Amino acid sequence: xxxxxxxxxxxxxxxxxxxxxxxxxxxxxxxxxxxxxxxxxxxxxxxxxxxxxxxxxxxxxxxxxxxxxxxxxxxxxxxxxxxxxxxxxxxxxxxxxxxxxxxxxx
Length: 106
Fold this sequence. Notes:
Blueprint: H1 14-20, H2 32-52, H3 58-75, H4 80-94
Helix pairs in contact: 2-3
């Protein structure tokens, strides 16, 4: 059987699932630097999947995005409670996205 190379961050339970299915695989534990890089890659991957998701798939894809955000925040000793005031401040200063405003040119 031909190997497929991924070199990407996966959820903690994936190796066990592969093992239980009898799928040969190899993993390693990321260094701190690699972990940060792979989390950022994963955020991009999950955001892209959310963009491409159908209405039915969107909840699950957004959950994946939020999971990566939680991991990045934890790694930086930031809590979700730390993020919320920053979100609210930006909302108050710049507004949200509910107005559906598209900037055509500036």
